[in-house]
Amino acid sequence: MKRFGTSLGLAALLLMLMTSAACAEEIIVSAAASLTNAMTMVKQKFEATHPGVKVTTNFASSGALLKQMEQGAPVDVFCSADQKTMNDAVAKGLIDTATRRDFVKNAVLLVVPADSKLGLKGEKDLTGASVKRVALGNPDTVPAGRYTKEFLTTAGLWDGLKPKFVYGENVRQVLDYVVRGEVDAGFVFATDAFQAGMKVHVIKEAEIKTPPLYPAAVTKAAAKKPAAKAFVDYLLGPDGQTTLRTFGFMKP
Prior knowledge:
Elements: H1 2-23, E1 25-32, H2 36-49, E2 53-60, H3 62-70, E3 77-79, H4 83-91, E4 101-105, E5 108-113, E6 134-137, H5 143-154, H6 158-161, E7 165-168, H7 171-179, E8 185-189, H8 190-196, E9 200-205, E10 213-218, H9 226-236, H10 238-246
Parallel strand pairs: 1-2, 1-3, 6-7, 6-8
Antiparallel strand pairs: 3-10, 4-10, 5-8, 5-9
């Protein structure tokens, strides 16, 4: 009888674990590459305060993430590094517009490798013969690259600098180019420069008419998932905002 009772106890435990796993809600958050470090920490803290919810994160350029959603990739929450990409997602019917909210602000910086000896002072110095390669995100898919193009076009430098451009698939790749000294200068988000610390030297902030505001929204496919909306709410809440500021992001 004792062995029989033990077997029943194990069976009950297994059933409880299986039921708990079945009841757990999983959400997939696709977020811009510049959010990698911050969102990884947000995910951990969100899961700690929302038992039974598992968050899976997916990072890439905002444009690449949009393409993934168009092709049917499962996404519950989309966090873009710019308004245009989110607007495109809305236009394609992928977003629950009632849940869309701006949750952080960023800035674009001109940076050089920490050991640079070029003595650059601003964007006009990029035209000098000593500057051979300038890294930026592909403007077609990377918001930081789009902001950079706007800045350099306004300054009348875009066309002249084109032969020097080295395009990155996302802003983190651009940062890596600068850190490794593979380019003479690059344009990255302030939060990326913050993460790089002493590995890069900041020359100046790019003056941009449209501020880099990051929107987040629940996808239409996840409109009935309470955890998806809860995650967006968490980003705007005091805990989420404190974590994001720790990584250099500013309030929207």
